[in-house]
Each structure stands twice: as C-alpha cells, then as structure tokens.
Specification:
The protein is α/β, with parallel strands linked by helices. The protein has one domain: NAD(P)-binding Rossmann-like Domain (Rossmann fold, 3-Layer(aba) Sandwich). 38% of the residues lie in helices and 15% in strands. It has ten helices and twelve strands. Strands 3-2-1-4-5-7-10 form a seven-stranded parallel beta sheet, sandwiched between helices. A three-stranded mixed beta sheet has the order 8-9-11. Strand 1, helix 1 and strand 2 form a beta-alpha-beta unit. Helix 1 crosses helix 7 and helix 6 crosses helix 10. The relative contact order is 0.14.
C-alpha cells in the first residue's frame, strides 16, 4: 500500500490527480488551505477510507510541510499560485512558488527519509523564452528554459511575474537535488494552457484562470476572439496522468516533461463550440481580434515515449469542459 502526499489538492489539476491516485489504490494524504476545502473533497469520496487531510494554510511559511510529509512514500507537489492578480510580486507569486517548492523538498529530506519519488507541477512558463525574437521560429522541448531575470520578475507585468515564479521554483528544485543529494528523485511536469472538465469546487465566479478563457466565450462576455498569450495547450486529464505515471515509471526519475497536446487558435475553439453546441450561436464570437503571430512549435515526443501519454484531442477537451459550462448559461 503506497501512501501519497498530494499538495494543493483542491486545485484544478490536483483534483484530477487525486481521483486518479484513489482509483489506482493509493492511500492519499491531501494538503489543503482550510477545513472547508477538506470537507468539500471528502464529500466527493465519502466512503473512501484511503483519503485523509492535512491543513497547510500558507505553503510559503517556514516548515509548512514538516508534519504533512511524515509517513508518506511518494509526493506530488501541485500547490502553487496561478493567477495574475498581483499587488506584491514577491508575496503574491514568487514566494509561494519558490518557498513552497523548497519547503516540501527540505521537509521530505529531514522528516521523510522513506520518500523515494517526488513529482512537481511546473509549467511551460519555465520553458518558453519571452526574449526570443518573434521572427525566429523555434520548437520548444524539455531542454529549453525561460531566461527571465529577478529584476524582470518584480516589474509591473503580472504575466512575467507568474512565468518567473514557475521558472525560479523549478530551478530551485533542481538546485536542491544537486546540492542536497537527498534519498528521493524529482520529476517535473511542464504543461502549457490546461483545459478540460473540472472536478474541484468551482462556480462561475471562481473558474480557474485557464478555463476562464473558454467560459468567457461560452457566456457571451467576450465579444471578439481573444489573442492567445501562448498558443499551446493540453487537457487536464493528460496532465494528471503524467503526474501519476511519473510516480510509477523508473525512466521518469530526475526528468523533466513538457506535457503538451499541440498548438491551437481561438478560431478553432470557436468553430468547435458552434459545431457541438449550436445553442451558443450569437454568444460565441467569431471575429478575430488582433492576430497573434505563431512563432514556435512544440515537441511532446518525450512524454509519449517515456510516460505513454496518448493526448486527448482539442475538440474532446473543449466539449467535455463546455458540457459543464452549459449548465451555467
């Protein structure tokens, strides 16, 4: 019986990781920020004795995970902020991402010597390099890194701060592995925009950042098709699958995986919505705003080869998500 610690268990990606772990027979200790979040998740699995909770109110606090890691065998660390509501770049994004990651690594080394595998949710934000010339076509792989600096991170652009938080957090994990020589291995999962059905506690007002772009198309609040900040995407179920397979695949030890289904345009998504949900005609925009020039491709061959990921299609992902949204409009 393998005991897994899942951090940030009330999140969009983590909700699917939790379901997959329980379905596969893991015993799961889930960290959440409040008892109310624990109560909600427990309501989804009321008869599952293999699910317990630990309250971690602030993942950036010293020793945040020292108690939570005790007695577990593997760790999936998904807890990290993903939003652009930035007042203080360090407090709102950088500290939670970086300190949350280093905190759980230190806790595992000091209080859970039995842990052999840690999987961390990173991001394409730690791969894509915004400084690359828009005229230079590039195919991104796991070998690429964001070149953002600390000074750029604490500037006035929330998107840059977010990308920096993921970059510095992941680099901190690899630095820890090199310097501390712990008993465990590390694997990072780096998805781009993540869409797909939601199993976490959510309402029209609290839709997660990535799915909100689709919700705004469905509810009619978006009058023209938005410009994609990053035209690469993946379904949340594939992201969850990658986390769990990384726990179980020896080849994944100390590896980085760019988990990406492919490129997209919001025009493609508009066409899917109008084809599969004709009742949305008149709500879903069809006119394109300022077009974004495609200046990169993506390579998911490593995740396919090592983890055996078979990627869900864009249409299937958008349809499965929109079935939930239809109940709200």
């Amino acid at each position: 019986m393998t005991i897994a610690l899942l951090t940030g268990a009330s999140g969009f990606i983590a909700g699917h990781v939790l379901k997959m772990l329980l379905d596969k027979g893991y015993t799961v200790k889930a960290t959440v920020r409040s008892q109310s979040k624990a109560d909600y998740l427990k309501s989804l699995y009321p008869s599952d004795a293999k699910l317990s909770f630990a309250i971690v109110e602030d993942i950036a606090a010293p020793k945040a995970f020292d108690e939570a890691v005790k007695g577990v065998d593997v760790i999936v660390h998904t807890a990290s902020p993903f939003h652009f509501r930035v007042t203080d770049p360090v407090k709102d994004l950088l500290d939670p991402a970086i300190k949350g990651t280093t905190s759980i690594l230190h806790a595992a080394k000091n209080f859970a010597p039995q842990v052999k595998r840690i999987v961390i949710t990173s991001s394409f934000a730690a791969i894509i390099d915004a400084s690359r010339s828009a005229d230079m076509m590039h195919t991104y792989t796991e070998a690429d890194w964001n070149s953002v600096t600390w000074d750029q991170a604490i500037g006035s652009n929330p998107a840059t701060t977010y990308r920096a938080s993921k970059t510095f957090a992941e680099k901190a994990a690899w630095d820890f592995l090199e310097k501390e020589k712990p008993n465990f291995t590390v694997t990072t999962i780096n998805p781009p925009l993540v869409w797909g059905p939601m199993v976490h506690d959510v309402s029209p007002e609290t839709v997660n950042t990535s799915n909100a772009s689709i919700w705004n198309l469905v509810n009619g609040s978006q009058t023209t098709l938005p410009v994609a900040p990053v035209h690469a995407w993946v379904d949340v179920r594939n992201v969850a699958e990658a986390h769990v397979k990384a726990l179980e695949t020896p080849k994944a030890e100390n590896q980085r995986y760019f988990v990406v289904a492919g490129n997209f345009s919001y025009k493609e998504i508009s066409d899917i919505l109008l084809k599969d949900f004709p009742q949305l005609s008149g709500k879903v925009p069809t006119e394109v705003g300022t077009p974004a020039k495609k200046n990169f491709d993506v390579d998911n061959s490593k995740s396919k080869a090592d983890l055996g990921i078979e990627y869900i299609s864009l249409e299937q992902s958008i349809v499965d998500l929109t079935k939930q949204f239809i109940d709200w409009v």
